[in-house]
Structure formats: structure tokens, C-alpha cells
Amino acid sequence: MKETYIFTYGTLKRGFSNSYFLDDAIFVSSAITCEKYQMYPCIGNGYPFLIKSEKNHQIKGEVFKTNSKIILNRLDDLEAYPDLYLKEFIKVELENKQIVKALVYFKNEETNLNAIDLSNPIFEWVDDFCY
């Protein structure tokens, strides 16, 4: 399997509650999305949703790389793909200004819309329970 970059923006980031899902992946860099999106916490602030249809902010996160199909399958399970999240590749800018295409999970905007806290838009997930 070829190497895959993964852009994380919530609980998969280093030091956060689900970071262990990426224990066997290699941290590459902090990063920011090249395009603008919107992020909201779920009701209860347990994890964020990245919304593709809203173009308000570049989103800060981290990039990892892996060539493990096991890791990618585990991420699909964690993110309840394709019901809760959908995935695609987007361009992100690393700290060294390099642009890479990275896999990211966007909120599936056709399902579970009542799980989104639309009153609290954010552009960076800074704690496991962001407020």
C-alpha cells in the first residue's frame, strides 16, 4: 500500500483522547487547510465536525503518514464512515510551507444533523472538550 497522509483536526491529534488510533503512524507536521471550511463541536463538546459546505476559516490540525491499511480501517470504524463522516483528500499546508494532499473526515451533512452544536463555530480544536 502506498503512503497516505492524514489530516487530523480533533480527538486524533497528539495528546487527545483518540490519538492512540495513530500510534503506528508517523507525525509529519502541524498544518492548516488550504481551503476554508467550518468546524463545530458535537452536542456535549466531545468531538468536532468539519463541515465542507461552509467556507469560513482555514482549519488548524496535524498531519500524519501511514502505509497501514489496518490504521485506515480503524479510522473508518472510529469515524463511523460513511454514516457519520465522509472522507476525501484535501490540500493542507505543512509548517515548512509544503502542500500535501491528505485524507480528512468531513461530517456527512445528510445524516445526524441534530448532533451538531451550530451555536459554537470554531476553527481549532484545542482541548478534548472544546468550548
TrEMBL record:
<dbReference type="GO" id="GO:0005829">
    <property type="term" value="C:cytosol"/>
</dbReference>
<dbReference type="GO" id="GO:0061929">
    <property type="term" value="F:gamma-glutamylaminecyclotransferase activity"/>
</dbReference>
<dbReference type="InterPro" id="IPR009288">
    <property type="entry name" value="AIG2-like_dom"/>
</dbReference>
<feature type="domain" description="Gamma-glutamylcyclotransferase AIG2-like">
    <location>
        <begin position="6"/>
        <end position="111"/>
    </location>
</feature>
<dbReference type="InterPro" id="IPR013024">
    <property type="entry name" value="GGCT-like"/>
</dbReference>
<protein>
    <recommendedName>
        <fullName>Gamma-glutamylcyclotransferase family protein</fullName>
    </recommendedName>
</protein>
<dbReference type="InterPro" id="IPR039126">
    <property type="entry name" value="GGACT"/>
</dbReference>
<feature type="active site" description="Proton acceptor">
    <location>
        <position position="79"/>
    </location>
</feature>
<keyword id="KW-0808">Transferase</keyword>
<dbReference type="Pfam" id="PF06094">
    <property type="entry name" value="GGACT"/>
</dbReference>
<dbReference type="InterPro" id="IPR036568">
    <property type="entry name" value="GGCT-like_sf"/>
</dbReference>
<comment type="similarity">
    <text>Belongs to the gamma-glutamylcyclotransferase family.</text>
</comment>
<dbReference type="GO" id="GO:0016740">
    <property type="term" value="F:transferase activity"/>
</dbReference>
